[in-house]
Amino acid sequence: MLILGIDTSCDDTSASVVEDGKRILSNIVSSQEDIHKKYGGIVPELASRRHIEMIWPVVDEALKSANTKLDELSAVAVCYGPGLIGSLLVGCSFAKSVCFSKGIPLVSVNHIEGHIFSSFLDEGGPLVDKGFAQGAPEFPFISLIVSGGHTSLYRVDGFRRYKELGRTRDDAAGEAYDKVAKLLGLGYPGGPAIDRLAHEGNPAAVDFPRAYLPGDFDFSFSGLKTAVLNFLRTKVGSRKPNAELRTLNSELVKDICASFQQAVVDVLVRKTEWAAKEEKVRRVTISGGVGANSALRRELALMAKKGGLQLFIPPAALCTDNAAMIAAAAYHHFITHDIAGMELNPVAYLPL
């Protein structure tokens, strides 16, 4: 069973051909990083216009790389939300056009659900010596989804059996990374830049707060972001610290990155650990762009080893937005005869 997945939920245009919901035959991603970095973040109008330019070349490349023709597809799957509405419109319109013209079944997938099923893809192979478990996770498991738009914990008991345990009350973790990077003048995207500099800094140099929010599994990173801003103000003596960063030495910037990152990772790891213990579940998965963060992967592996948990983490390329995860989730929709109609419309806000 071959499914073509399409994802245009944010700024990356992606298409992928996946066999039987697991085996990736192709996974093409066209990044818009060079377009948006000059603005310090994603500009929705520019993102949607670029999707229009790239959607057909990316799909064509995915089919060619998989040595597959449209007539050989069992279904076309598209992410219809949540995300930027202009970007989602491009993917949904293209997918519906292909399905209508070729008579191929259309499957609609929630972006968050796609992240959950990224751990079922074959490229998420085992790294046992680093604490990662073999193969695909068995149900039930705890799923930590952490990206620029989402920071949530789910208990997953099976396909379409999802229980939200906690979510961010304000900024998502990835959003906090981007905003702190902007304060430090590190550019966009902020996550990789902070992770890189954090390797050379002291994570104990600055005692940034951890919002553990006792009593539930919700997250909050807005206060941490403000703490970094206030710390910078004390160091540069300006209410606009990014305009005075030349007064900071490079070692201090590295220490700020390391301390900020440690605060984020501590909260994500502890909340995940507590959720697994509370739900009496021995398997944990992580997905989303921040799932590619080296410190988070390392600390989760240590937590899992200490607690006797199985930890499933896809490769970094499958943590960020990609169409393979959309096709993986769509497989389960397709085999249960959950087919979308031509009246499908994207939805910017779409709870799982």
Please explain how this structure is put together.
The chain is α/β, with parallel strands linked by helices. The protein has helices at 33-36, 44-65, 85-102, 111-117, 173-183, 190-198, 222-236, 250-279, 294-307, 316-319, 323-335; strands at residues 2-7, 13-19, 23-30, 75-81, 106-110, 141-146, 151-158, 161-167, 283-287, 310-312. Strands 3-2-1-4-5 form a five-stranded mixed beta sheet, with helices on both faces. A five-stranded mixed beta sheet has the order 8-7-6-9-10, sandwiched between helices. The longest helix has 30 residues, at 250-279. The two termini are 25 Å apart. 50% of the residues are buried. Residues 124-131 have low confidence and may be disordered.
The name of the CATH architecture of the largest domain is 2-Layer Sandwich
Let me know the largest β-sheet: 5 strands, mixed
Portion in strands: 15-25%
C-alpha end-to-end distance: 25 Å
State the helicity in percent bands. Answer: 40-55%
Query: So how many helices?
Result: 11
Shape: globular
**CATH level-3 fold name of the largest domain:** Nucleotidyltransferase, domain 5
CATH superfamily membership of the largest domain: ATPase, nucleotide binding domain
Cα-atom radius of gyration: 20 Å
Indicate the structural class: alpha/beta
Annotation, overall tally of beta strands = 10
Q: How many discrete structural domains? A: 2
Q: Low-confidence parts, pLDDT < 50 over ≥5 residues?
A: 124-131
